[in-house]
Every structure is written in C-alpha cells, then in structure tokens.
Amino acid sequence: MEFLVGLAEGFIGMFQEGGEVFMGLVTGIIPTLICLITAVNAIIKMVGEERINRFAMKCTKNIILRYSVFPVLAVFFLTNPMAYTFGRFLPEKQKPAFYDSAVSFVHPVTGLFPHANPAELFVYMGIAAGITELGLSLGPLAIRFFLVGILVILIRGIVTEFLTVRMMKAKGMDVDQGSVKA
C-alpha cells in the first residue's frame, strides 16, 4: 500500500514540478522573448521588407557572405524555423548548403539572441548554470559560442555546397539550372 501511495505522490509531484518550471518561464524568459520578437519585427517594418530582400540578394553573391552573414541575418530576423525561407534567394545548388548553415546556427545564436530559437534556450541555460555556479560571467561564453558558430556554419556551408555540386554533376544535372540535362 505504501508503494502505491509513494507512486501516486511521485506522479503528481512530477506535474507540480513541471508547473513550477513553467511559472518560472512565464515570469522570467517569456516576457523577454516577446519583447525581442516585437523589436525584431519593428526593425523589419522600419527598414522595409523590400530593402531586406535586396540586401539578401547581394549577400548571396559571395560565398563567404552566403554562409556567414546571410544565415546569421536569416536566423536573427526570421528566427527558427522561418529562417530557412531565406533559401528562396539562392539557386538550387546552394539551397542545401544554406539550410545546413542556417540550421547549424540556431544553436550558437541562443546565448546572445534567445528570441531566435527559444526552444534551444533550455540547452544553453543548462550550460550557463554551470558557468554561473563557478562565478563566471555568461557574456564571454555567449560571444565565443556565437563566433565559433559563425566559423562552423561557414565551413559547413562551403563543404556542403561543394558536395552538392559534385553530386548534382554525378547525377547528370545541370549545376547552373538545377535540372536534369536532356
């Protein structure tokens, strides 16, 4: 009988603990995320979608910008998962590499800009808890995470584009058009 009582108390205790965590989020990070999302949307409205689109088209012409600045802007302004729609500015041969870069950046961006991928915040906060327990500042961690993330997405983008072009050629596809040669 004691076993069943302990099991029942443990079961409801799990949900009570979940409720406490949820309330911590509601009074902590969620208002911050709402403010950040509002600010980003305001910036997009002030700058204008057309200007952002033109800038995006220019960024995709250079391989370094295409897999560093372009995914960072996509993740910052559109957040996860909408950031991947920036791939529309790219030819077919570059879309897989852009996706690889953007999806790889939704993690490192979290320390500085949690609005970009709030779901990833739990992982970052777990790491941050250990850093703060040591009495260290989170700023340097967030900046290093961000900068290393940019380097990683650049490397991944270039390698993925190289591999994509190679595979397209092996399949007899026209690399410039992204279609099968007749």
UniProtKB/TrEMBL annotation:
Q: Which domain of life does the UniProt lineage start with?
A: Bacteria
- The answer, when asked if Transmembrane helix is one of the entry's keywords, is yes
Q: State the Gene Ontology BP annotations.
A: phosphoenolpyruvate-dependent sugar phosphotransferase system
- From the UniProt record, list the coiled-coil ranges: none
Q: Does the entry feature the keyword Membrane, yes or no?
A: yes
Q: Where are the transmembrane segments?
A: 21-44, 64-84, 141-163
Provide the leader sequence positions: none
Q: Which UniProt keywords apply?
A: Membrane, Transmembrane, Transmembrane helix
**GO CC annotations on file:** membrane
State the protein's name: PTS sorbitol transporter subunit IIC
Print the organism lineage. Bacteria, Bacillati, Bacillota, Bacilli, Bacillales
